[in-house]
Design a protein that fits this description.
heterodimer; A: 657 residues; alpha/beta; Flavocytochrome C3, Chain A, domain 1; Methane Monooxygenase Hydroxylase, Chain G, domain 1; five-stranded parallel beta sheet; five-stranded antiparallel beta sheet; 23 strands; B: 254 residues; alpha+beta; Ubiquitin-like (UB roll); Fumarate Reductase Iron-sulfur Protein, Chain B, domain 2; 2 domains; five-stranded mixed beta sheet; two-stranded antiparallel sheet; 33% helix; elongated
Chain lengths: 657, 254
Amino acid sequence: MLDAKIPAGPLDDKWTDYKGHCKLVNPANKRKLEIIIVGTGLAGASAAASLGELGYKVKAFCFQDSPRRAHSIAAQGGINAAKNYQNDGDSVFRLFYDTIKGGDYRARESNVHRLAEVSANIIDQCVAQGVPFAREYGGMLSNRSFGGTQVQRTFYAAGQTGQQLLIGAYQALERQVALGNVKMYTRHEMLEVVMIDGKARGIIARNLVNGELEKHFGHAVLLCTGGYGNVFYLSTNAMGSNVTAAWKAHKQGAAFANPCFTQIHPTCIPVSGDHQSKLTLMSESLRNDGRIWVPKKQGDNRKATDIPEEERDYYLERRYPAFGNLVPRDVASRAAKERCDAGYGVGTSKQAVYLDFAAAIERYGKTEVGKLGKDNVSQDEVIELGKEVVKEKYGNLFDMYEKITGENPYEVAMRIYPAVHYTMGGLWVDYELQTTVPGLYCLGEANFSDHGANRLGASALMQGLADGYFVIPYTIGNYLADEIYSKAISTDHPGFAQAEKEVSDRINKLMSIKGKQTVESFHKRLGKIMWDKCGMARNAEGLTQAIAEIQALKKEFWSDVKIPGSINEMNPELDKAGRVADFIELGELMCKDALDRNESCGGHFREESQTPEGEAMRDDANYMYVSAWEFKGESNWELHKEPLIYDVVKPSQRNYK
Amino acid sequence: MEHYNMSLNLKVWRQNNSRDKGYFEDYKVDGISSEMSFLEMFDVLNERLITEGKEPIAFDHDCREGICGMCSMYINGKPHGPWKSNTVCQLHMRAYKDGDTIVVEPWRANAFPVIKDLMVDRSAFDRIVQAGGYISVNTGNAVDGNSMPIEKDKADASFAAAMCIGCGACVAACKNSSAMLFLSAKVAHLALLPQGEPERKKRVVSMVAQMDKEGFGACTNTGACEATCPKDISLSNIARLNQEYLIASLTADK
C-alpha cells in the first residue's frame, strides 16, 4: 500500500533529478485543469498563489472570514534557511542533518534533504514579496539562533514572523484572485472528499454563513489544513483549528501517519483556571536570553526575587551543559514536567517553572554602557539600558505576557509551562506529497512528512512554504499531465450526490440528538483524557484505559450532545460539533498509535523505554518505521509500516549534554 | 496579582442575519474570575444559554492571542474595549469590577454588514488588497535576499506598518467609517521597500479607488483610528498615503 516514490540516486541529486524528469503540463492544458485547495495558511496560500501563477484554475477554501487569518499567522520566532549568511559553518547538509537528528531519526531523508535545499529559495521569495524581515544596520538580513542547533540560521520579523510570511503569501494569493486565476471561498468548511473511480475529484463544502452544502469539482484536491493539536482541548492552536478535512480524507482511504507524534512546546503561559479556552505560546527565541530555573527546595513559596542565586536550580544548564537552555523542545518540556512532578514547581498551581531575564538584562546593560563609553554608571542605569535592549528583541512577547498574567516580566521572572503546540503526525504522503488516495495531496503541518518525532524551532514555517511554493508546483504536474484527457466532471455526477447526502445525513443526525451536554463539555473531557494519558509521558496501561474511555465518550457524544439553532443558518455550535466528533475518533487512533510504539522518541516518551538516568530511549531495532494507519471501519484500523532507511545519516542516540 | 470574582450586567447586540433589524438583550453573569479573558466570559455565558435552550451569541474569534485579527467587539463605545494597544481576545476581566455594566456591539460601518449578532463581513478589506496590495512577483523570480540591502530604519518602518492585523477597529472607531488607516498601512509597508517601487503609483491609485467603491467614508484626521488600533499603526502612515497619492496623481504616465 505504501510506495514513497523516493527517486533513485544520491541524496544530493534526488530533487534536481526529479525536477529534470517529472512530467510537465503545457500552458494551454493548465487552463483546463482545476485544483481545489483547502486551507489558506502558509502551505495553502503559497500553493494557491503559485499554482494560480502557473495558469491552473484554482479554488481555495478557508473557514475563517479571510485567508489572512489562518493560524500560521501566530508563529512567532522565525524561519530557518541554510543561507550561511553568518559564515558560521551552516550548509544545506547541516540543516538537513539537524532536522533529521532533531526529529529523532523518524523522518525520511529524501524529503528532509529537499526541504533543506529549497529553504534558501524561500527567504529570497519572501524578500522579493516585501516581507520586512529584521535587518542589520548595513541593510543585510539578520539571523538568530534557535533551539536544537549551533548555528544562526533563523530569519525573523520581531516576534511576528508567521504573520509577516502569511501576509506575503496572502498578498500573492489575493493578486491571483484579482487576476481571476484563483477563486476564493471564505467562511466555507470542507466536509467531504468526493471520490470518483478511485480518485479524489472534488469536495463537499458547507457555506458557514447560510449553512448550505456546495459541490466543487477539481482534477486534484490539496489539503493544507494544519495540525490537530486541539484534540487536547487546550493547546496553542487557534480555536477553529481542527482535523476535520484530514479526517474525512482518512475515512476515504488516506492513511494517517504517526498520529501520536505531537509536540509539547516548553515555553507557554501556564493554565490559570477551569475557564481557560486556549494556551498562549511564548516564542522559543526567549530561551536565547532567558534562563530557566526552579527553587532548589521543594515547595518553596518565596517570590522569585527573594530566592538567592545559590538556592536556584538552573536544571537545563545543569543537565545539558553543551546546549543548556537551548536544548530541543521535547527535552526542555520533559525536564520541566520532571521538576514540577517532583514538587519543585512554582506559582499558585505549582505547574510552572521560571524563565528569567534578569541576567540578560544586566549583561545587555553592561554592553550598552561599554558602547557609550561611560564610567560611574549606577546599577539602576545599567538595568534600564539592558531593559531597552531586551525590549527591542522581545517587546511584543513581553507585552503579551503582561496582558494575560497582569505581571511585568521586565521586573518579575516569567512563569512558563509546556503546552501542546504542533503535530508532527498527519496524513501519510509520498515524495510528491500525494496521500494514499490518487489525486489527493497534503501539504504543511497537515502531512506527516518532514519533522519525524519532534520538530525543531523555526522549521514549521519553512516546511509550509517549501511545500506550497517549491514542491507542489512540480509534483502536481507529474499527476496532472495524465489528466489532460479528463474533462471536468459535472457536479451532477452521482459521486457528488452521494457524498453530499452523506454529509447532510451526518448533520441531520447531529442536530436530531437533542441531548443535554454541550459540545464544549465533551471537548474538554476528551482533552483531559488525551493530556493525562497520551501527553508528554505515556505508558501501556494508561493508553489502554484511554482507548476505552474515548470509545465510551464517543457513544455518549452521539446520544447526548446538545446543539442549539438549526442547519440552514450561521451556527457555530454545529460547526464545532462536527469538529469535536472527528477529534474523538482521532483521539482513539492517537492512543492506538502511541500504544503500538513502545519506545521513547522525540516528543513521545514511553515510560517503559528510558535510560537509567531517565532520558528517552529510542528503539531502532523495532520501531524505525513510519506508522501509517488505514481506516477499516469504526474503531478499526490496519497498521502499515514504511521502513525508514538512512543512507547518509547514521542514527545515534541524541545527546545534548 | 490578586484575583477576584464578579457579577456583571451585559447588554449585547443580537441580530439574526443581515436583513434583521437587531436589538439589545440584557444578561446577568455571575462568578466571573478576574483571570478570565473577555471572550472566556462570553464562553461561560454561551454555555449557559445553550444549557437553557437559548441561542448562543455569535462572535468572531480564532487565535485568541491578538494576531489573527478575527475578533471584533465594540465594548462600551470602544473597539476592542478599554485597554490600549489591545484586541478583545487579549482583554482580561481584571479590567472590570463587580457590578459593572458592559455594552457589547458589532463593528458598525456600512462597508461591514452584520452577518449575525457580533459578526460582521469584512471582505471589503480583502478586495482592497486585491486592488494592488502586493508586489507582483511570481514564485521562482526572486534574486538572493541579500542582493538588495535595505536601510534598517526603512525596513523597521515598513515592518511597523505591516503589523496591521486587518481587524477593522480603525473603521469602527471612525465617525466617518473611513478605512484610511488600514489602507495607508498597506501602502506604506510596500512603498517603503525598494521591492515595492515599480508598482508604487499604480498601487496607491487603484487601492484608493477600491476603498471608495466599497463605501468607506472620508478621512477627517480625527485620529480615533490610531488611538484604537491594537497594533499602534501610526497616523503618519495616512500622511504618507496622501503624499503617495498626490505624487501618483500628478505624475502618472496615463
